[in-house]
Amino acid sequence: MRYMLLRRSDPAHEAGLPLSPAGRAALASYTGAMADAGILRACEHLLPSASGVRLRIDSGGVTRADGPFPETRSLLAGFAVIDVGSKDEALEWAARWPPGEAGAAEVEVRLSGCPGGCANVQAADQPDASGQRYAILLRSSIELENETPVARARLDALDAHNAAEASVGVLLGADGLRASALGARVNLASGKLTVVDGPFTEIKEMIAGYWLIRAPSLQDAIAWATRNPYPVGPPVEVEIRQLAELTDAAGAFTPELRAAEQHMRASGLDAGMRAQLAGGAPVPR
């Protein structure tokens, strides 16, 4: 079973503050353990929402709102995608996510997939690709939370579009997220662990799916998101966030970070995952 672990943001992440060397080492150890266990499929860090844009796409056109966004707790700092045997196992890994400098973290655990079924994205291998990477985050709705059936023709159109965009190296990954009733939230604060099962009430703050793309600029990412054939809507609301890239910060690597970096390279994981370990870039707290 595939689950997405969504690490919620906090004021320190939104301010762009990096973790301490010890915090980076803890995160490197955590992601390295998931890679060692053979369950890690993706791990990404989102830049603060100042780099982001929100779009409302409806029959009348597109309404744009630029970041930063005020509701920090509903924002994402990063996420991991893992393949595990059960929800309980996913919760165990979520509970191990290293807390930030303040000793607190909130991780949402969501079952991946489309209720009507959707094809896997097979991204083209382009090691020398240029451009920035962006996450297109589909905001949830009552229909999506209730898993209202979607016409097969719309899902087929989306699958065909995803395949075409992946074949030319634009689309790097995509998946839906099932209703929050199938998920849970793990809170780590003051040394205490709390698990709260879904469903959750703040529907518009939740994510129902995502696309990871490579584009020359934010404007190109906006254009891509505007023409994307979403399985629902209109209207559709999406948030576009730039992903961190691996920077040349070798001098800031501790031995632990170097070992994790080498492990991830050997495992063939995406370079964006390794960006979390770069000493010059902020990482999920």
UniProtKB/TrEMBL annotation:
Residues 1-110, 174-231 form the YCII-related domain. It comes from the Bacteria. InterPro entries: Dimeric_a/b-barrel, YCII. Belongs to the YciI family. PANTHER family: BLL7163 PROTEIN, BLL7171 PROTEIN-RELATED. This is YCII-related domain-containing protein. It comes from Massilia antarctica. The lineage of its organism: Bacteria, Pseudomonadati, Pseudomonadota, Betaproteobacteria, Burkholderiales.
